[in-house]
Write a structure and sequence with these properties.
With 260 residues, this protein is an alpha/beta fold. The chain is built from eight helices and seven strands; from the N terminus they run βαβαβαβαβααβααβ. GO terms for molecular function: oxidoreductase activity.
Length: 260
């Protein structure tokens, strides 16, 4: 684990719920962490390489009156996941909400150039990592009879984007995983849902052309791109008590782009 810079003297507020957001140093993860903190949750901001960005995000959250701390870990690694969860508990207490957002490179290749390893690379992020994290937090969630598990999926499962089968297949597996977990964990008071964004411009898309974005927007009923904040608000709702009868669902945040 890549460690955090938590001062030993700082302690969490035991009256607040705690959320762990993976891949939260930038993009959707940062917006999700910000929104959860604005709703009063203590937020563990997980990062892989971008420690400075994660620390900066935590400073902004704290400046706005929220509570956040950065924790580095590769969430595909079993030992680092265990250390991440232990460090979060030591600082904030038990984890009430787990947001599975971490992702990696997403190569677009024709079928002839795709390899099984490229598929496995995507499954590491969208199936293996969620499994490792859920296994770590589940015993305490079951014991307390409460938990929120929120996966960040994608509209590509419905759209079937060409030259992207490696990513689409992994996101499809993630959705199936969500639904199975939801049925298994519902009797314990644990909800499991998936938020499926459309194309949300973030730092990942700095090289995208205006023409590409215009072509995408042309197919969106609301005729605009969404924002990372749109996704953050959906996640915050699912993390709240107001969503306590919602589980096993996919919530598309894409301006109606997957209306069929």
């Amino acid at each position: 684990m890549r460690g955090n810079t938590m001062p030993d003297a700082e302690k969490s507020n035991p009256g607040k719920r705690t959320a762990l957001v993976t891949g939260a140093s930038r993009g959707l993860g940062a917006a999700i962490a910000t929104e959860l903190a604005a709703k009063g949750m203590q937020v563990a901001v997980n990062y892989f390489q971008s420690r400075a960005a994660a620390e900066d995000l935590c400073q902004r959250i704290r400046a706005s009156g929220g509570s956040a701390e950065a924790f580095g870990a590769d969430v595909r690694d079993e030992e680092e996941v265990a250390t991440l969860v232990a460090a979060t508990r030591a600082h904030f207490g038990e984890i009430d909400c787990l947001v599975l957002n971490a992702t990696g490179p997403q190569p677009m290749l024709p079928i002839e150039q795709q390899t099984w390893q490229i598929y496995l690379d995507q499954l590491e992020f969208f199936v293996k990592s969620p499994l490792l994290l859920v296994q770590q937090v589940l015993p305490q969630m079951k014991k307390r009879g409460f938990g929120r598990i929120i996966q960040i999926g994608s509209e590509v499962v419905e759209l079937g984007n060409p030259n992207f089968a490696n990513y689409v297949a992994a996101k499809g597996a993630q959705l199936g995983q969500t639904r199975s977990w939801a049925r298994e964990l519902a009797p314990f008071g644990i909800t499991v849902n998936l938020v499926a964004p459309g194309w949300i411009p973030t730092e990942r898309h700095v090289d995208s052309s205006q023409q590409e974005m215009d072509q995408y927007i042309a197919g969106v009923p609301m005729r605009r791109m969404g924002t990372a904040e749109d996704v953050g608000r959906m996640v915050a709702y699912l993390a709240s008590d107001e969503a306590n009868f919602l589980t096993g669902q996919k919530f598309a945040v894409n301006g109606g782009n997957t209306l069929l």
